[in-house]
Amino acid sequence: MEKWQGLNKHSILAQATRQEVLGLYRRIFRLVRKWQAASGQMEDTIKEKQYILNEARTLFQKNKNLTDTDLIKQCIDECTARIEIGLHYQIPYPRPIHLPPMGLTPLRGRGLRSQEKLRKLSKPVYLKSHDEIS
């Protein structure tokens, strides 16, 4: 009990979040050690492993100074989704989505700005940071 007296809710939450983020980072490195390309080719496996490591390092480095808990939660959700999708489909790359131009109809007309806004809102969680670093 005395151990927790000096800590407030924010620092406890920050520590829990830090542990969750570090756990995801370790999970990615464990995943890379066991990763096999779906093609079975050694060259493909090496390229895919390198892609996974580079992507993880880039995104974790980019987001290391985030302090907003909601934004950190979004990044954690994206990371978890990308890991699960990669394992399920046996591809390390984000799955592309196709939205035809002007395909999202807003209630009040079909303006370009509203289409851009709807596209941004409809982007899956696992693609949120992909465009930022590509």
From TrEMBL:
Any one cellular-component term (Gene Ontology): mitochondrion
Please name the CDD domains in this protein's record.
Answer: Complex1_LYR_LYRM1
Domain (Complex 1 LYR protein): residue spans on this chain: 19-80
Q: Which PANTHER family match?
A: LYR MOTIF-CONTAINING PROTEIN 1 (PTHR14273:SF0)
Q: Which family does it belong to?
A: Belongs to the complex I LYR family.
By what name is this protein known? LYR motif-containing protein 1 isoform X6
| Species of the source | Acinonyx jubatus
Query: What gene name does this entry carry?
Result: LYRM1
